[in-house]
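step: validate -> pass
step: tokenize input -> pass
step: predict -> running
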Amino acid sequence: MKVLLVWLLFFSNLTKVAHNDPNKELDSIRVNYTKAVSDKKLCKTMLAQLQVKNGNSVYLAYRGAFKTIWASHAINPIVKLNAFNKGKKDIENAVKESPDNVEIRFIRLSIQQNCPSFLGYNNEIAQDLQFIHANKNSITSIPLKNMIATVLKKEIR
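step: predict -> pass
step: emit ->
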């Protein structure tokens, strides 16, 4: 009887681990990243979800990216600038924590390519593009590969 109970507990914990798979969670964040540009409610939801994620530089980079996207949804210019600057700071901190992470460099690249030039956040575009081209084969996530492929196609044109 005790053995059966142990086995049941073991398998129920395996199921919980499978449901909390960080790769699935990250893939969900990746998919929502591109959607948040046109969906204010989704952007707000993602910001709330990422606010509680600590200790992972990829989550920090996405949190920063969603903050910069939030700036495009805001109406007040001061709110826009504050959101953008906070997001930029998170992205740069993520790059400092993990400078060799392709995903973080991609996030920074995508924000720098799409933000208004007068904000002056475009100094690392060439460096990040070169890094991503050199390291894109190390990516295993299909959603991330697709996002990067889309950005790289824009650069070829």
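step: describe -> The domain at 25-156 is CATH 1.25.40 (Serine Threonine Protein Phosphatase 5, Tetratricopeptide repeat).
step: cleanup -> pass
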